[in-house]
Amino acid sequence: MTAAGRFLKKWAPGVYAQLVGHIDRARRLFQSGAPYITDDLGGSFKEYVKTHDKEVLLARLLSGLDAESQTVVRCITDRVLFFDDAGKRASSNRVKRNVQELLPVEVPHRKREIQAVLRQCSRQFNLLGGRPEASVFYFFHGLTLLPPKVVARLRGTHLMDVGAYVGDSAIALSRYGFSKTFSLEMSAVSAGRYTKNMARFGMNPDHFMLIREGVARADGGESVLIRDSGSAGTSIFRHGPVSNTIAVSTRSADSLVDAYGIKPGFIKVDIEGAAKEFVLGATRTLTRFRPVLSIAIYHNPMEYFEVKPLLEEMLPDYSFMIRKLDPGISQNLIHSEVVLLGWSNEMNN
Fold first, then answer.
1. Is 209 exposed, middle or buried (0-12, 13-18, 19+ CB in 10 A)?
2. In whole angstroms, what is the distance from residue 37 CA to residue 42 CA?
């Protein structure tokens, strides 16, 4: 970071955040739209599969899923193993631009429908530091895909929003009538925007709590250092210059639930590669409260291949579904916004 950048960040953080956003958008504008696979959020899918039995991994992931979920799994698996990793794009001599198979969410007429809704949301929700995304403002983290009986039972329960970003999920999901939302966000920049967005849209402060902590598989660990640019990609796996790094305390989800009196009916998790850590630290919470789950599993192979089997061991009487919640196929959107949805079978009655 330059001296000018450090000055702006310290004395005019709002201006600094806007400039960073403009630079990121300009960079994306001039980048190639060729698909690539994220490999800096916990490891490469390709390297992972080299040391594991692919057929066993797929069998465990496909087990018990509906037909569309199985289609999504096979398609996404083919993509993450076919397209170049982000770290190897520049050195690759192969051009892999053609996407041979489109998922239901990606077909042209569905994409146009989703984009029309998002344009309307952009006019309605001028979010500070963010923009309406399909996974949040169209699919509502998958709640629109679940049985109506399951969704109806969420009213009056607590929402645990793990990876709150700038409050977009909290705002979008408020329509479901949660009695209180507990939002976890590590980034200081995003947390500041969250607070301002809640105020801008008149959200009742008694119904929301922002928790500046991260999740881990166990308690007692040291604080983690993260690169805090305020982007949606803030992660324990990404580190930056000392001037752009902050220390964040972490503890298990079970500990957080106990400390803040959370009784989750719905848990949404999108924490840039750390979903497995969340699940390992949430055993007591998941078995006690049996919440509906929406967990992003696309950031790394541990999330993608291991989270569902872990949950099936903890929650044997749950139904699971896997969907892609974004119509994009350029750059890393080719495998992004893939979520694992889960709910107790007793909620179907």
1. middle
2. 12
d(CA 80, CA 305): 12
Q: Which residues contact 142 (CB under 8 A, 6 or more apart)?
A: 294, 321, 323, 325, 339, 341
Q: At 3, is the secondary structure helix, strand, or coil?
A: helix
Q: Please state, in angstroms and rounded to a whole number, the distance separating the CA atoms of residues 214 and 122.
A: 29
Half-sphere exposure of 181 (CA within 13 A, CB side): 28
CA distances from 195 to 63, 124, 185, 249 (A): 41, 18, 11, 20
Say what the pTM is.
0.88
Instruction: Tokens for 128, please give them.
Output: 């500070």
- In the block, which residue shows the tokens 């198979």? 101
The most distant pair of C-alpha atoms in the chain lies apart, rounded to whole Å, by: 61
- Contact of 80 with 45, CB cutoff 8 Å: yes
DSSP string, 298-348: -SSHHHHHHHHHHHHHH-TTEEEEEEE-----SGGGGS-SEEEEEEEGGGG
Question: In 3D, which of 293, 254, 20, 251 has the Cα closest to residue 146?
Answer: 293
pLDDT tens-digit profile of 152-166?
A: 999 999 999 999 999
pLDDT score of 33 more than 90: no
Amino acid present at 155: R
Q: How many CB atoms lie within 10 A of CB 110?
A: 14
3-state helix, strand, coil in the chain (%, to 5): 50, 15, 35
Strand partners, 216: 252
**Which residues make Cβ contacts (< 8 Å) with residue 309, sequence separation at least 6?**
60, 61
Please, are residues 17 and 230 in contact by the beta-carbon 8 Å criterion? yes
Helix (H, G, I), strand (E, B) or coil at 35: coil
Q: What structural domains does the chain harbor?
A: 1-31 (no CATH), 35-348 (3.40.50.150)
Q: Which two tokens stand for residue 102?
A: 């489109």
pLDDT per position as a tens digit, 96-145: 456 778 999 999 999 999 999 999 999 888 888 888 999 999 999 999 99
